[in-house]
Structures are given as structure tokens and as C-alpha cells.
Amino acid sequence: MKQFFTVFSFEFKREICAKGFILVTVLLVLFAIVAGAFPRIIRMFEGRANSITSHEVGIYDEHGVLSSDIITMLADGMEIEMVNSEMDLHDKVLSGDIQTGFIIIDEMNYQTIVGNETGSYSMVLSQVVESIMKESYIGNQFRSLGMNYDEINNIYQSQINSERIILGKTVASNTTLAYVIVFSIYILILLYGQSVATVVASEKSNRAVEVLITTTGTNSLIYGKISAVFVSSMLQIGAVIVSGAGSYMINKAYWGDINILKILNTDSRTLLIYGLYALFGYMLYLCIFAMMGALVSKSEDLKDVLVLPSTLFVIGFFMASFALGGLNNILIKVASFVPFTSFMVMIAKMSTTGVSNLEIAISLGILVASTIFIAFVAARLYKLAILMNGEKLKLTKALKMLITK
Questions:
Q1: How far apart are alpha carbons 350 and 276 in whole angstroms?
Q2: Radius of gyration of the chain (CA)
Q3: E strands of 312-356, at which residues?
Q4: Cβ atoms of residues 345 and 323 within 8 Å
């Protein structure tokens, strides 16, 4: 055990002090902080934009077509300046005092005046003016026919109320949390799977390993490396979660009706099961990548041996994505019990279609047993291949050597 902690301590310090680890952690933490403060940032820019575009719309209404109510409606979201003549409007547009001008000819016609072709913004303003003028014209026509337009409009705007009653168990509220966990596992394996394989492979390319195995057991070496990567990555993801949650709590008032904590909220049982699947699935792939790293003599050969595990977890991610969409065919059901995919697929199924306690127990049991077995095989294979140099071992050949040994 002392040897294990010695290896773990060394590899852990090397991992967290690496420039790449620090850079990725800082970037992820900054991203989490910005995400938590996103509505506040947007509001700051909106406030600045509003201050820049004051009195941007000018209107010349010679015949008084627009009533005060219409002008009030137009002023909602923009500042209106009424001008006294068409020439005055042209001068203000050319001087930049206002950005967009409107000449109201009659109830059905108007002109848009801009200094230069400014793109979509003036077009949006024109659509707003046109919509309000059309609404006013329709109302006036109804009234000229002796009809109460307000009552007619209220009828058209009537809303049908409905209520959905779920007699069974609803699991859709967990979908957002499930997606976050599945995507996080995918990113962790993508980032750290190759990292642990590189650590194991690079060790074989120098003579230091010959000294190490004479003083330290091979089990302590490989388990220490895997554990160091596991713990450092958990610390990294923890830092991101704490930063994002802290930023959200500080800026919670700016999120309005959107309650992120409520969206991600779930019961403790479901959260525990999600956590077990995530941790054992992640550890399973770290052991697989470490095992594949032991098959090569130098890190340059890793790209060939990592194709298989990389393909497996990508398939698992796509299966989970389909399950999150509500798909529950025979392929998804099988994938929820295969240990290489179950840790993502079962989380997705629990959040959408739902699964029984027996299915969870069997699937989780297979995953835990497979993780322990793969960890055992990885240690044996590491011990077998650690001093082998030259061409890389094929996985099938290495397994045959383990069986016959």
C-alpha cells in the first residue's frame, strides 16, 4: 500500500502541475463563470446599446395619421422624435441625429428614410411600423362598419387552456441533468483516456522502468497512475462545478424565471445511481486505456491501439444520445447492459423511458464486476508487457499469453 501511495503522490503532482492541465482547468473555470453570469453580461451590452441608439427613429406625419396610442406603441423599445417637415427629417438622418426616419403618407403608405443601406436593423424597424399601421387600419375599417374592433380582436386573441395529467411516473425532469452527466463523461474520457495511456506508454520508452519494477510492484505502478489521473480529473471537474455554481448564485437575480438549480434538481436516489454509473464507467475506460498503453513500446504507436476503446465510447455516447431522444428499441436495451456502453445509456434511459430497479441492479452489477475484472487484467497485462520492447503487442496475442501463462 505504501508503494501505491508513493506512485500515486508522484503521478498526481505531475498531473496537476502540468501546463496542459492548468491551462484546461483555467479555461473551463472561466467558461463556467461566464456561463453563470451570461444574462448579466447580455444586459450590460443591451444597456450600452440602448444608450448609443437614443432618439434613433424620426417620424414625419403631415396629416396626423398616427394617433397618440400608435406613437406610444411605436415608442415601446425605441425612442421616437416627431419632426415638422420632410426636409427636416432628411437633414437629421444625414447628420446622424437619427438613424432611421419614417414619412407617413396615409393609413396604407409610408416611406423609410436611411442615410446609408444599414442592413437588417432598419428593415426590422420598418416591419414594426408596418405591423402597427396595419393593425390601426384594420381597427378603423371595422369601426367604420359599426363593429367593435376591440371585442372582435379579443375573440381572435382567445387562448385555449389545457392541463396535462400524468397518471404514471414522470422522469422527463431529469433529462437535462442526464445530458450534462453523459456529456461530461464523454469529455472526461476524451481528455484523460489518452492521457493515462500516454503515461503508461512513455514510461516504457526509457530505462527508468527497469529500476522502478525492482523497487515497486507493477500493481502499485499501474493502479497509482490510474488513480492519479482519476482524482486529478475529479478535482478539475469539481472546480468547474463550484465556479459555475458560485457564478450562478451571485448572478441569480439576472436569470429571471429560469431556475437552473430547479431544472437540474432530482431525488437523491437517482443522483446516487447517476454518480455510480458515471464513476465506474469512467474508471472502466481509464483501466482500458492504461491496458492499451502497455501494449506499445513508445507513445507514437498509441494512435493504432486506441482505435478500439475510442470507438467503443463514441458508440456509447451516440447510443445515449438516441436514448435521450426517447428511443428504446432492442439495440438500446442491449446497450444498457453492455458495460462499455451501459454507464451512459442507462443514465439516458432513466431520464426518459424509465427502467425498473431490477434492470438497474443487473446493469450496475455487470458494470462494477467488469470494471474490477478489467482492472485486474490491465495489471496482469502491464506486468507481462512492461519490459517488452520492439513491435507493439496485439491485444489478442497479449490475452492469449496471459491465459497460457
A1: 13
A2: 32
A3: none
A4: yes
Q: pLDDT category, 173, cuts 50, 70, 90?
A: low
Bridging pattern class, strands 109-114 and 100-106? antiparallel
User: Which tens digit of pLDDT belongs to each residue from 245-282?
Assistant: 888 888 887 776 666 666 666 778 888 999 999 999 99
Q: Does 84 or 392 have the greater pLDDT score?
A: 84
pLDDT value of position 205: 64
pLDDT band at 15 (very low <50, low <70, confident <90, very high): confident
Q: What is the second-level CATH architecture of the domain 54-152?
A: 3-Layer(aba) Sandwich (3.40)
Taking 80 as the threshold, does the pLDDT of residue 367 lie above it? Answer: yes
Please tell me the distance from the alpha carbon of residue 237 to that of residue 1, in angstroms, as a whole number: 27
* pTM (2 d.p.): 0.68
CA-nearest of 119, 114, 88, 84 to 101 is 114
Half-sphere exposure of 164 toward its Cβ, with a 13 Å CA cutoff?
Answer: 3
- Distance CA(101)–CA(82), nearest Å, equals 10
Give the angle subtended at the CA of 404 by the CAs of 400 and 405, to the nearest 5°: 115
All cell numbers assigned to 256? 429571471
Using a pLDDT cut of 90, give the percent of the chain over it: 20
Cell of 260: 437552473
Query: CA 333 from chain center: how many Å?
Result: 25
d(CA 402, CA 405): 5
Q: Which amino acid is at 85?
A: S
Structure-block grid coordinates of residue 197:
495511456
The packing angle between helices 307-324 and 175-204, to 10°, is: 180
Task: Return the domain boundaries, the chain.
Answer: 2-30+171-404, 54-152
Q: Grid coordinates standing for 106? A: 396615409
Q: Provide DSSP, 213-263.
A: HHHS-HHHHHHHHHHHHHHHHHHHHHHHHHHHHHHHHHTGGGGTT--HHHH
**Residues in CB range of 150: below 8 A, 6 or more apart:** 139
Closest alpha carbon to 340 in 189, 217, 187, 157: 189
Phi and psi torsions of 393, nearest 5°: -80, 145
Q: For 104, which DSSP code?
A: E
For residue 405, the model assigns a pLDDT of 62
Percent helix, strand, coil in the chain, to 5, is 70, 5, 25
Asked if 277 and 343 touch (Cβ cutoff 8 Å), the reply is yes
